[in-house]
Amino acid sequence: MPNAQPIGIFDSGIGGLTLAHAITELMPQENIIYFGDTAHLPYGDKSATSIQSYSLKICNFLMEKNCKLILIACNSASAAAYDLVKTYVGTKAIVVNVIDPVIDYLNDSWEGKTLGLIGTKQTVNSGIYASKAEALGKGIHIKSLATPLLAPMIEEGFFNNNISEQIIKEYLGHPNLAHIEGLILGCTHYPLIKKQIDAYFQGTIPVIDTSRIVAATIKAILSERDLLIENQSIPTRQFYVSDYTDSFEKSTQIFFGETIKLTQYPIWD
Ligand code: DGL
């Protein structure tokens, strides 16, 4: 598998660009192809069957593009479709989800602790973080809360303002999150509101932004298999969405840190 093959990244929309950004920061030489399924956003309210079907079609696209690794940069799709995607892709590419790297991190650093988790309905109702943490056998307990308003709120540009502060306050004050010793941001949109979440807790507990953890896992996997690209001066970065609007393109600035050009690629019949 030549090292110059791109890293494929997909999400329900442009939220996964927070992860694409973390990856380009950590591995600036790598070629990346991003696919945001904006036609079906949000995934968090969809059935597992629908998310699985969307995910396989996106993987077909990323495999056609010869990706060496496919990152499911969405917690909802990682919860609903990872096993299926992994089987489907087989040996054609390495498949990484955004949940297992966080579980490995908890295993290393959070023995005997109680953590909160916020995410979409799909992620939280799947119970996947809680069951995987439990399976570690290290007494790590996860208390979860679905926070379905947060991703659409962020997509609409409502963050770092009074409205987002009120919504965040309302969710984080929920009894489900009482007495936690840390909070996992279980949605790839949430790094954008980390500052406000930190402000809510006023430094009393750590708020875990998983994008750096996942990016570090990808680097380790590629390095282990000798698949990191070396000595490339200008990497290629391509960004596709299944439904294009100007407003998505404008929002990329918020999620990726710079405005990028989105290409529409409708992958549906
Ligand atoms: N970015 C997705 C995730 O990590 C959430 C957004 C959505 O509901 O589509 O779960």
Can you give a write-up of this model?
This protein is globular. It has helices spanning 17-26, 48-64, 75-89, 100-109, 121-126, 128-135, 150-155, 162-172, 194-201, 210-224, 246-256, and strands at 7-11, 32-36, 69-72, 94-96, 114-119, 141-146, 183-185, 207-208, 237-241, 263-264. The longest helix is centred in the N-terminal third of the chain and has 17 residues, at 48-64. The two termini are 31 Å apart. Helix 1 (17-26) crosses helix 10 and helix 2 crosses helix 3 (75-89). The chain has 2 domains: 2-97 and 212-264, Rossmann fold (3-Layer(aba) Sandwich); 100-211, Rossmann fold (3-Layer(aba) Sandwich). The mean pLDDT is 94. The protein is built from 11 helices and 10 strands. The chain is an alpha/beta fold. The strands form 2 sheets. Strands 4-3-1-2-9-10 form a 6-stranded parallel β-sheet, sandwiched between helices. 43% of the residues lie in helices and 15% in strands. The structure holds D-glutamic acid. The site of D-glutamic acid has 19 residues, from helix 3. Residues 11-13, 15-16, 41-44, 74-76, 119-120, 123, 151, 187-189 line the site of D-glutamic acid.
Short key terms for the protein model shown above:
269 residues, alpha/beta, Rossmann fold, 2 domains, 6-stranded parallel beta sheet, 4-stranded parallel beta sheet, 11 helices, 10 strands, binds D-glutamic acid
Summarize the structure.
The protein is of the alpha/beta class and about 270 residues long. It has 11 helices and 10 strands. It folds into 2 domains: about 1-95 and about 210-265, Rossmann fold, CATH 3.40.50; about 100-210, Rossmann fold.
